[in-house]
Design goal:
homodimer, about 220 residues, alpha/beta, five-stranded parallel sheet, DNA-binding
Amino acid sequence: MMNKIDIIIVDDHVLFSQALNGLVSNFDEFNVVTVLNNGKELVDYFSKENKQPQIVLMDIKMPIMNGIEATQWLKDNKPEIKVLALSMEADEDTILKMLRAGAKGYLLKDIHPSVLQHALKEVDASGFYYTENVTNTLLNSINHKQKSIAIKLKDRELEFLKLACTERTYREIAEVMFLSPKTVDNYREALFEKLGAKTRIGLVLYAIKEKIVVL
Amino acid sequence: MMNKIDIIIVDDHVLFSQALNGLVSNFDEFNVVTVLNNGKELVDYFSKENKQPQIVLMDIKMPIMNGIEATQWLKDNKPEIKVLALSMEADEDTILKMLRAGAKGYLLKDIHPSVLQHALKEVDASGFYYTENVTNTLLNSINHKQKSIAIKLKDRELEFLKLACTERTYREIAEVMFLSPKTVDNYREALFEKLGAKTRIGLVLYAIKEKIVVL
DNA sequence: TTTAAAAAGGGGAAATATCCCCTTTTTTAA
DNA sequence: TTAAAAAAGGGGATATTTCCCCTTTTTAAA
């Protein structure tokens, strides 16, 4: 008989975690060492026990110490243990935080048991299991960082704003725009007002944030 | 005998693609339908042939039509075919473009054959295979934390630079840093010199470009 | 065609930023 | 322990930015 892979389940919903326990215990390859109710219990567990599981099946929303904190703790203190997140929510922010904390995979609780089994095997064998879902979420959050609130600027103001994001002085900007320096003053003051800026630096920060200028 | 999974290899390096052909053909589960030299040949192939492979092993850098364009074309025209990218480079930009174009995985050419075999099986069975490498790249590009700083800045200079990217005056920056305004002058001038800037705007542009400050 | 709004221009002044060439203090390395 | 380097501070001048309160010119709409 081959050695089974030790797993700890951390989840505060007892009904669910016990069901999960039964499920995983039925997988030939895995052995559930213990079932804990939150991150704190996991940390306490390691202060008492010498045994280390290969994988922790981690819920995210939990009282006292949540899954993100617990995963971060494991990364810092037991980096060889792999965390597979198991969550109800698939919102971008949670996924991001969990992955940054070091999770090796992120599954939703409504998956088919066979997928869980497959994921566990992958995490054991390859060290990770990132689903299409997770990857797409990451791709999305790169794309729609933030939609511009789009204060509407006139063409000439936009032109000035772009030039303000260079090392040109206002005098030089005036030359480029074929305007008097005094008129450029007006554009500056108008944009200070519209964009809530107090200095030229503020204009630059706004322009870059809103992707009016691209670096 | 089970049905083998059909694969097309697209790569302009003939020596490599032929070696890859031999390798994959030796895998029990897979059958290499044909080997093509670039994306254009792949598009042409589908205009002549009715047969469709399940998976395309796609190089990225190729003449005439590169792997990104070809993958995008497949997504638009043959969405049921899965693309597994196989590349020399692991730079962020390329990975992002390839995934956006619809690749179901991204492997480097220096992996072990068994990993390729495993990835192919995963792509066939699950529809995707995203490695830790790829996921970390995505995470990084969200964080914008890739430190490509060519010029090494001292801690205190970095601190000043970040403050320069705000609407604070130098006098206020001096207060925050517990320095005399004159010392702040020195930091400014030192950075002008190091970063080739002539004005504070130049500092801000540099800091943002190099991801020293995140907006 | 009249009228209002937008764009352009300006005077003048105070606050900041830029610049160059110094000294003193603290840290680091030989 | 001593020399050198880095960090901190400064004087003083000029240039630029910021600010407020104006006029003139051009454009667009009634």
